Amino acid sequence: MKNQTNKSARGQGPAATKNNASIKNMPTAAHAKPVELILPTGTKCLVKPFFGKDVITAQRMMGSDPEKFIFAMIAVTCTFDGKAVVMEDVEFMDGYDVLELMTYFQQTKNFQSGTRK
User: Fold this and answer.
1) SS3 44
2) Apex CA 70: angle with CA 64 and CA 72, to 5°?
């Protein structure tokens, strides 16, 4: 099957898809910088830029429970005071920290730009 894009999203301008939609100004994870968050408990959280493979890993981690997707994304992409965690660790984190991270990941602008305003 022939590739339906006219240009790639990697530095050659917006990609035109088969339904004529275009992706504008979407930086790739390779060019994004980690985002530092200070959580309500004072914990320093570093959110690394992520790729499709990270999303797939999170989907595998959540299993058949879609409610755990954000928890899995947090585990895959974040370090806390320099330490990596597993999804079960996120389940037992302080609730306010978890809500802050869930809000961060659910905001579309964060997925698009990798920055927090």
Assistant:
1) strand
2) 65
pLDDT band at 41 (very low <50, low <70, confident <90, very high): very high
Nearest to 32 by CA among 48, 10, 45, 8: 48
Angle CA(50)–CA(24)–CA(38) in degrees, nearest 5? 40
Look at 30-39, 75-84, 108-117 and tell me which has the smallest mean pLDDT. 108-117
Question: Which pair of structure tokens corresponds to residue 60?
Answer: 């595998």
- Asked if residues 30 and 60 have their Cβ atoms less than 8 Å apart, the reply is no
Q: What is the rounded distance in angstroms from the CA atom of residue 80 to the CA atom of residue 44?
A: 6
Q: Which of 33, 31, 13 is nearest to 23 (CA)?
A: 13
| Partner residues linked to 80 by β-bridges | 45, 83
pLDDT value of residue 43: 97
3-state per-residue secondary structure call for 64-112: CCHHHHHHHHHHHHEEECCEECCHHHHHCCCHHHHHHHHHHHHCHHHHH
